[in-house]
Amino acid sequence: MIAKYYQLLKEFIEIPSISIDKEHLGDIKKAAKRLKKVFEEHKMDVQFIEGYWNPIVIASYEHNANLPTCTIYWNYDVLPANKKDWRKDDPFSLYIWKESIYWRWVADTKWQILIHMVSIFELIKEKNLWYNIRFFIEWEKITWSENTKRFIVENQEKLKSDFFLMSDWSLVNNDACLWTSTRGNIDISLIIKTANNQISTGTYWGIVPNAIHETCKLLSKIHWANNQINIPYFYYDVEEIPFNTVINNKKIEFEIDKVQKELSIKSMFKEKNLDYISQIGLRPTVQITSIRSWYDDKITRKTIQNKAVANISFKTVKKQSPDKIITSFQQRIGSNIPDYVEYDIKVDQISEWVAIDRKNKYFWKAESFLQDIFQTQVIHLNLGTTIPVLNTITKNITENVLIIPLANNDCNSRWSSENLNIKLIEKWFLFTLNFFSTQLQLF
C-alpha cells in the first residue's frame, strides 16, 4: 500500500496542473484522465464531466444502500512555480532531504487526497469499507470556484451525501486539528480615473492628478493608526469572542519568532488582549491585495497614469452582513473622493462565514480517532481563510462537513521550500483506514 502511494504521489505531482496558466490546460486534462483511469482500475464508477471550464471527476463506490455516504472533496489546482526559486531545476520532480519530500504542491493538497484514495482502495480490496464513497475532484478553487459552485447547484442529487470530508492546510505544532469555522470573504475592485489618456510628457508633471496617487490616498484612509478598520459600522455586528474560546486559543502555542523569521517580517499585528489564533480566525480584516496602473508596458515609467485599479479583500466573521459592508465601503470612498476623480466599485466575489457543526457524529468520530493516534488533545481551530465552495455545499448538499488538515506545520505551503514530513504519512494512513473501516466504528 505504501509503495502504491509513493508511486501515485510521484506520478501526479509531476503533472503541473496549473489552472491559471492557459499553457497548462493540456496538463490539467492529463491529470484528470489519469485520475479517471486510477479510479476505474480500483472498481469505482467514474464520470468525467466537461462543460464547467476544467474537467470534473466524480468517482463512486456504492456497495450498500443502508450505509451512510461520504463525499471526499478536493481541488487539483496548482500554483505556478518559478524554477530559479527551487532547490532543484524542476519543482515538479522528486527531491528528498532530511526526512522531507520537496515538490510543488506536495504539502498542500496532492499528498492529502492520495492518502484517502489509497486507503479507500485498500478497504475496497479487503471488503472492509463502512461507507459508500464518492470522490468529487475539481480544478478551480484558486479562481474562486464559480463554475464548480454552479455544478454543485445543478447536480444536488448526484452529490447527495451524509457528510463531506476535505483535507487541506497544515497542523498546528504538528498536533491533530479539526477546523470549526471559516471566515467569509468579499473581493472588491476600486477603479480610479483621472484623465482620458496617459500623460506622457514632463510638461504637466506635478500639476495634473495621478490615478495611482489618488488611489493610494483613498486606501490610506481604510485603516486607523492602530490597524483597526476605518469603515463606518464595520464592527457593528461583530460578536465578542467567547471567553472559553479565547482561553482555549491562548493555550495553543503560536511560534511568533519562527513565523517572523520564515516570512522575513519584523512585526505582527493583533488587537489588545487577543492571541494570534483568535485574531486570525475570529476577527474581521481588510487587506489591499494589489494596486496596478491600467497599462503595463515600459512606457509607463515616464507617464502619469490616468487609470488605476486596487483589489481589496474583506475577511468577515459571524453575523457580518456583506451587503452592509459593501454599502459602508462605498460611502467611505464616496465621501473622500475628490471632485476631479471618477471612480467605480465592482464586487467580484462574496463568500459568507461558515460554522462547522461540532456536535455531528462524524466530527466526534474523527476527533476520537485523532486523539488516539496522536496521543494529544485535538485542537479546534477557526480557519482564517475562505473556502468558496463551502457555502454552496452546506446550503445545497449537507451541513455535516469535516475539514482535517494533514500537512506538517512547517510545510511552507505554496512557497519554494514546500515540503512534506515523511513521518506523518504513517499516522494519516492509520487514521484514514480506521475512520473508514467497517471493523472500527464508534457508532
- How large, in whole angstroms, is the Cα Rg? 24 Å
General shape: globular
> Which stretches are low in confidence, meaning pLDDT under 50 for 5 or more residues running?
none
- Tell me the distance between the termini: 27 Å
The percent range for strand residues is: 15-25%
The level of helicity is: 25-40%
Describe it for me?
The chain has 443 residues and is α/β, with parallel strands linked by helices. The protein folds into two domains: 2-181 and 353-440, Aminopeptidase (3-Layer(aba) Sandwich), CATH 3.40.630.10; 184-238 and 284-351, Alpha-Beta Plaits. 32% of the residues lie in helices and 21% in strands. The chain contains twelve helices and 16 strands. The chain has helices at 2-13, 25-41, 106-126, 146-154, 211-219, 243-250, 256-263, 276-282, 322-336, 361-374, 388-396, 423-436, and strands at residues 45-49, 56-61, 69-75, 95-97, 100-102, 132-138, 163-166, 177-182, 184-193, 285-293, 307-316, 342-351, 354-355, 379-383, 401-403, 419-421. Strand 1 (45-49) and strand 2 form a beta hairpin. The protein starts with a helix and ends in a 7-residue tail after the last helix. The model has no long low-confidence stretch (mean pLDDT 85).
Give me a quick take on this structure.
With 443 residues, this protein is α/β, with parallel strands linked by helices. It has helices at residues 2-13, 25-41, 106-126, 146-154, 211-219, 243-250, 256-263, 276-282, 322-336, 361-374, 388-396, 423-436; strands at 45-49, 56-61, 69-75, 95-97, 100-102, 132-138, 163-166, 177-182, 184-193, 285-293, 307-316, 342-351, 354-355, 379-383, 401-403, 419-421. Strand 4 and strand 5 form a beta hairpin.
